[in-house]
């Protein structure tokens, strides 16, 4: 179902943390400038993925206090790694753990898409189309664990296209363990 674009400020207001991921070639500068004006200073992890735990620098950023936006790269590796090298250095478990860490911090993932400037790498569109399909699948899966906001960036504007906040897994119901009636286990 298509919804009319919503103002970016209205869409990001309920979140404490924003994690921006998206297609190569989509210019992020205007988005980061707007988010800074809304009270989300930019945080960037050290360049390159950690060799043993690619999500570690991102989890360390998420431990910081306050409201901020993170310029991601983990999901980009999950998408472009298999396209370019035949495998990703990021596992699905790591991506899902990161998504849940973002959600626990009252955050959302921003999926950037774009018009002009997206996929101008001379690949004749094959890699761009495959990446777009892979990103759609990845964010459909991640939306089960963290709110996902789709944002289209064009030379003229930044539009919130859709917001997916549907979570499949609900938090586990807490049951007091110390006040339960003792039960006897018999083997035999």
Quick structural gist:
This protein is an alpha/beta fold and 188 residues long.
Relative helix content: 25-40%
Could you list the spans in which at least 5 consecutive residues all have pLDDT below 50? 116-120, 170-178
Strand and helix order:
HEHEHEHHEHEE
Beta strand count: 6
Give the neighbour order of strands across the main sheet. Answer: 2-3-1-4-5-6
Amino-to-carboxy terminus distance: 58 Å
What is the number of helices? 6
Radius of gyration equals 19 Å
What structural class is derived from the secondary structure elements?
alpha/beta
- In round numbers, the mean pLDDT is 81
Using the alpha-carbon principal axes, give the shape. globular
Strand content: 15-25%
Largest sheet: 6 strands, mixed
Task: Provide a descriptive summary of the structure in words.
The chain is 34% helix and 18% strand. With 188 residues, the protein is an alpha/beta fold. Helix 4 crosses helix 6.
């Amino acid at each position: 179902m298509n919804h009319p674009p919503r103002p970016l400020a209205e869409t990001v207001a309920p979140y404490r943390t924003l994690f921006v991921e998206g297609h190569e070639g989509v210019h992020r500068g205007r988005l980061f400038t707007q988010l800074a004006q809304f009270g989300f200073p930019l945080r960037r992890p050290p360049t390159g993925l950690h060799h043993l735990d690619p999500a570690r620098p991102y989890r360390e950023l998420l431990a910081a206090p306050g409201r901020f936006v993170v310029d991601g790269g983990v999901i980009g590796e999950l998408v472009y790694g298999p396209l370019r090298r035949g495998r990703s250095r990021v596992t699905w478990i790591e991506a899902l753990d990161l998504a849940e860490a973002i959600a626990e911090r009252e955050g959302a993932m921003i999926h950037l898409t774009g018009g002009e400037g997206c996929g101008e790498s001379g690949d004749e569109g094959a890699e761009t189309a495959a990446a777009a399909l892979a990103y759609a699948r990845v964010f459909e899966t991640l939306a089960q664990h963290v709110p996902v906001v789709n944002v289209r960036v064009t030379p003229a504007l930044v539009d919130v296209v859709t917001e997916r906040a549907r979570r499949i897994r609900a938090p586990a119901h807490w049951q007091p363990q110390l006040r339960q009636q003792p039960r006897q286990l018999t083997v035999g």
